[in-house]
Amino acid sequence: MTYILPILAVLLSFLFVYLIKPKKKEGIKLLLAFSGAFLLALTVFELLPEIYEGTDQKKVGVFIMLGILLQIFLEFFSKGAEHGHMHMDSSKTEFPWLLFISLSVHSLLEGVPIGDHHSMLYAILVHKIPIAIILSIFLIGSKIKLTSALFFITLFSIMTPLGTYLAKNIAILSSVKHELNAVAIGVFLHISTVILFESSEGHKFNLSKLLVISIGIIIAYFL
Ligand SMILES: [Zn+2]
Ligand SMILES: [Zn+2]
């Protein structure tokens, strides 16, 4: 399940966009706001308290900050695709390698905490769906060939389970799993807060957004 669900979430999102061609942006925005709140809350409730237990706490903090820095660095190449932004030129026909590589590094890291924290699987699934929908809308709407788009989305869907698998089964990686988890926390803190920040346009009061954000926090609390 840990390996199959993230793949299915991405592929079904692509299929959904291909068949339905969703026009309404508002629904995706709400889903995105919910996913940001849910991911942030689970990181705070589940991952953060545990990562500081019985280790060099300053070192943990350094790796969390490195995760935040890494995500900022990745976004120079992905233009924010990890948190639901597409600023890519859709008239280009070639395979978007930089986007692909930066998204892959991000997704591989996301797979690390899933191995030991089952509730993080849900956080990642909820986070992946709006991102995959937005990515698919871009890919299908761009001049990129459908086969390339499919290739892109299929490889992208495999990255998170691959991260889970590698962190568990490769000796060098599992020996630094604690550090990798701390880096993943930094990545989550960065993308989830950016999602929440960008979901409030001009800081206008938006009741439905406030509601989905609260629901995301409450579900994470009881999970
Ligand atoms: Zn952005
Ligand atoms: Zn992600």
TrEMBL record:
The chain crosses the membrane at residues 29-48, 60-77, 97-114, 121-140, 146-167, 179-197, 203-222. It is a multi-pass membrane protein. InterPro entries: ZIP. GO terms for cellular component: membrane. One of its GO terms (molecular function) is zinc ion transmembrane transporter activity. Coiled coil: none annotated. Keywords: Membrane, Transmembrane, Transmembrane helix. Pfam families: Zip (PF02535). It is found in: Membrane. This is Zinc/iron permease. The lineage of its organism: Bacteria, Pseudomonadati, Bacteroidota, Flavobacteriia, Flavobacteriales.
